[in-house]
Amino acid sequence: MNQTAIHRLLAEQDKKQISPTKSKELFKLRMAANLSIIKHLFSSLYPEDEHPGMFDKLIERLPMLYAKRPAELKALDIDRTYGRNDHWYQSEQLVGMQLYVDHFSDNLQGLIKRLPYFEELGVNFLHLMPLTTRPSGENDGGYAVNSYTEIEKRLGSKEDLRQLTKEMRKRGMYLMLDFVVNHTSDEFSWALKAKEGDLQYREYYYTYPDRSIPDQFEKTMPEVFPETSPGNFTYNQEMQRWVMTVFNKYQWDLNYANPEVFIEMISILLEKINYGVDVVRFDALAFLWKKLGTNSQNLPEAHMLISLFRLCMQVIAPGVIILAEAIVAPKDITKYFGNGILEGNECDLAYNASLMALLWNSIATKKTNLLYKSLLSVPDKPKSATWINYVRCHDDIGLGYDDQLIEELGWNAQSHRRFLLEYYCQKLHWSPAKGMMFMYNPKNGDGRITGSTASLLGLEKALDLGDAEMTSKSIDKILLVHGIILSFGGIPMIYAGDEIGTLNDYSFLQKPDKKEDTRWLNRPNQDWDTIKQLSDKKSEASDIFYRLRQLIQLRKNLPVLSDRNNLVLHHTGNPHILAYERTGRDEEGLLVLSNFDESEQVIDANWLESLGYGHDSGFKEMISDEHLKLNSGLLPIPPYTQYWIVKN
Ligand code: GLC
Q: Which of 368, 471, 561, 563 shows a CA-CA span of 20 to 30 A to 465?
């Protein structure tokens, strides 16, 4: 980008009050700077001779979309792009929470009233699950979209959403919303037109008159929901054609080989972010491009498409960033930050699905060996990118570990996965976990796990048994894994309810449109009765809430926890301990030690000293705010305990 021209434009006045003319000039500069790469990507996917006039159509659309962006958001874009706020998403000040509005506060107006709750806990970044219209029966929790911008009535109105984002901006809070980019519902206007026989809209989806092409696809495409939606195609009676439905049978995959689809979708996206969205969560983006003979995931064309979305967004709304929801193999995740010419031009954030799954492995095995091996095998991420670190979300826990790494530890990969399923899904009488299977596939024994953090970590069973020691162990584990997501580097995303140890919600089993999908086990209503009593009653919930709140406050007081690619994993020689350092200048470093075992573990103090931490008189530990003493040259770490040790 032409920096001198930009500085000249911005020099004279406060960026927040930039005039419309200057703002337009900046838009033109961004357009000029990005045009050649946009053209390169667009014509690689859609060659001009096969799709005449489509590139011009896109380029003519962009200024129209820019004109629709509200002035207040344009000013924010300028602040985040050319001001000091350009890396706001890497700050240690950010702490996120993910929630379903209806389960949390009934509707958007209710959520506005609940904003002080987040402030009390220290949360300032919200991921709200889909808010848009959806089919009235099964709708995959709103991920089957009937529209991308119309708000589901029972959640509120467009005005309510605008009011919410305004209120959040006032309080310095950020909003993330989904962009369900891979598919629409079968009730979406394009699908309805396709069903009525409109050939233009039929081309927006992958549809086939017979099984010949679907059968070829099936040879190499895996099944996402094998139990409830086997295969990747569904027969539609009205069209008398097979439609590609990779997820559920009512979710139709969009045909991005058709450039009209891309142009429509980028227009919709840019309209959607004008509500005041700060981060767009690109849902299921690994699936965007389909090709016979491949698994149709992570294809180079999908990366080019995402980059095209991103570049167009950069031209029009450069302050808005993208999160990759790529729940794929560790080696593939970092590719969504952009490789080669796409570096810096793809996603700014990605879910750290590898860390999440590995934490659950470490809890069950009480060992950190697979965690180290796997994290060390993840390619480095670019400096400008960061992770969303999480323990639980609304989806299942997939066991996508690298088989070879499991085997290198001397374990059989298949038996190891079976052990984890049994440990978490109530098949081992000694296991404290109370989870359920998700999408168990008897053909190959594959399955995933679902359940709330607290129930998977033993709190439900402990309370059922009235076992105080087990209860306290479970609470320690809850804090241990949250301490990791708060200190690892990136935005920690707490799942609503986990801050008070919410247990599994079994009510979905009575609901016909939900009972087949065990992920609803972990989508509970927010328990406001318990929250009301947090401050005046000693309970498990208040223990978790106040300890978590203290960790959040600590995070915000440690600038070394902002993500500057300053994470170093350290091998301690003890198989139960995870040790990493957030390195900083001089005295600034932080060493995080976590004991995943049920017995006390020790670390050699000389080794800690060689890293620059502690000395004869002990260690300064931030969570307990105590000075830890050595025992015969060793630092003892109690069961399921975490230390945040600083240098002085
Ligand atoms: C994403 C969502 C998941 C949904 C799927 C299909 O993975 O997180 O809940 O089922 O996309 O939209």
A: 368
- Among 138, 139, 143, 246, say which to mutate for ligand 1: greatest number of ligand atoms within 8 Å of CB: 143
Closest CA to 245 of 256, 258, 260, 235: 235
Contact of 100 with 107, CB cutoff 8 Å? no
d(C-alpha 464, C-alpha 458), whole Å = 10
Distance of CA 178 from the midpoint of ligand 1 (Å): 10
Query: 432 is written with which tokens?
Result: 């404290």
Nearest CA to ligand 1 atom 7: 284
Three-state DSSP class for 124? Answer: coil
Specify whether the CB–CB gap between 581 and 624 falls below 8 A: no
CA distance 83 to 421: 49
| Nearest of 325, 378, 376, 345 to residue 127 by alpha carbon | 325
Burial code (b: 16+ CB inside 10 Å, e: under 16) for 427-449 equals: eeeebbbbbbbbbbeeeeebbbb
Cα(284) to centroid(ligand 1), Å:
6
> CATH classification of 566-646, choosing from 3.90.480.10, 2.60.40.1180, 2.40.110.10, 2.60.40.1190?
2.60.40.1180
Distance of CA 60 to the CA centre of its chain: 33
283 carries an active-site annotation: yes
Retrieve residue 504's tokens.
């599994």
**Residue of minimum CA distance from atom 4 in ligand 1:** 143
Q: Among 181, 283, 323, 448, which residue has the most ligand 1 atoms within 8 Å of its CB, making it the best to mutate? A: 283
- Quote the ligand 1 centre to 143 CA distance (angstroms): 6
3-class SS of residue 539: coil
Nearest 5°: the CA angle 63, 65, 71 is 95
pLDDT at 23: 87
What span, in angstroms and rounded, lies between the C-alpha atoms of 104 and 127? 12
DSSP state of 225: S
Sign of the four-CA dihedral 155, 160, 162, 167: negative
Taking the centre of ligand 1 as the mean of its atom positions, its distance from the CA of residue 512, in whole angstroms, is 20
Closest by CA to 40, choosing from 55, 26, 28, is 55
Listed in sequence order, the DSSP H helices in 129-235 are: 158-170, 189-195, 199-202, 212-220
Tens digits of per-residue pLDDT, 500-559?
999 999 999 999 999 999 999 999 999 999 999 999 878 999 999 999 999 999 999 999
User: For 5-46, what is each residue's pLDDT tens digit?
Assistant: 766 666 655 555 678 888 899 999 999 999 999 999 999 999
What does the alpha-carbon distance between residue 598 and residue 637 come to, in Å, rounded to a whole number? 11
Q: What is the pLDDT of residues 343-359, one digit of tens each?
A: 889 999 999 999 999 99
Phi, psi of 100 (to 5 degrees): -95, 120
352-564 is classed CATH 3.20.20.80: yes
Cα-trace Rg, the chain: 25
| Every domain range in the chain assigned CATH 3.90.400.10 | 189-253
The boundaries of every CATH 2.60.40.1180 domain in the chain are 566-646
Q: Is 476 a catalytic residue?
A: no
- The CATH homologous superfamily for domain 189-253 is Oligo-1,6-glucosidase; Domain 2 (3.90.400.10)
